[in-house]
Design a protein that fits this description.
There is one protein chain. By secondary structure, this protein is an alpha/beta fold. The chain is 33% helix and 19% strand. The radius of gyration is 16 Å and the shape is globular.
């Protein structure tokens, strides 16, 4: 049985990205790291990003694996697909600010459906693009690579954006996850956490390791230390 969807509590989560898992054995791959409590499913439409990936049936097939799953929608039509993935079993639905200039109706619809609602930012999109909507959000995602493909290098120039969002979230007093996705591994996880991110999505950093669960735990320890030292 899944644990209750967590709220930010000062503990950094390392969130395995299933994009880097064995596509022929997703359920088995997820089961290996289910103790992390949270995994991420990248949903790509071949239009907003130049790649195609998982549909809602894949999410349904992962039901019962014991981990919460966020659906990161890299799609041009989140108004259509956000509710579809909420109904399919996502625990958070995250869509891109670039695709929805007036996101409040969709954010509220998702939250009424019982899922966490989040906005994601591509590297060139400033932090200010989500600040007006903080009161409607459960999660903000900062992309530290151009979305679409795994295995890319972490963009350190995104760290000021993470810091700015951390400051804004803290000032708001709201329980909003600050998630970072892209190039997260043993060396970069502490950088993102040190800037204020408390949810770190890692694909090859986890599933590319000989022992994914051990890699996840090592990364989480280093990230937590950096998060605790910030400021």
């Amino acid at each position: 049985m899944k644990a209750r969807r967590p709220l930010p509590d000062g503990q950094v989560r390392v969130v395995p990205s299933l994009l880097a898992a064995d596509p022929g054995a997703l359920r088995a791959s997820l089961s290996r790291v289910a103790s992390a409590g949270w995994c991420s499913l990248d949903v790509m439409d071949g239009r907003f990003v130049p790649n195609l990936s998982y549909g809602p049936d894949v999410l349904r097939a992962l039901d019962g694996c014991g981990a919460r799953i966020d659906a990161h929608l890299m799609v041009e039509d989140p108004e259509t697909y956000g509710p579809v993935f909420a109904k399919a079993g996502a625990d958070w639905v995250v869509f891109h600010a670039e695709t929805c200039p007036k996101p409040v109706p969709l954010l509220r619809r998702l939250r009424r459906m019982g899922v966490g609602a989040g906005l994601a930012l591509k590297p060139r999109t400033p932090a200010s693009a989500v600040l007006p909507w903080l009161d409607e959000l459960d999660l903000v995602l900062v992309m530290t690579v151009e979305p679409g493909f795994g295995g890319q290098s972490f963009m350190e120039r995104m760290l000021p954006k993470i810091r700015a969002l951390r400051s804004a979230i803290d000032r708001s007093g709201r329980k909003v996850w600050l998630q970072t996705d892209g190039g997260i591994g043993p060396k970069t996880a502490p950088l993102a956490a040190g800037a204020g991110s408390d949810s770190l999505v890692s694909g090859t950093g986890v599933f590319g390791a000989a022992d994914p669960l051990a890699a996840l735990r090592t990364m989480r320890r280093a990230a937590q230390e950096a998060f605790n030292r910030r400021g």
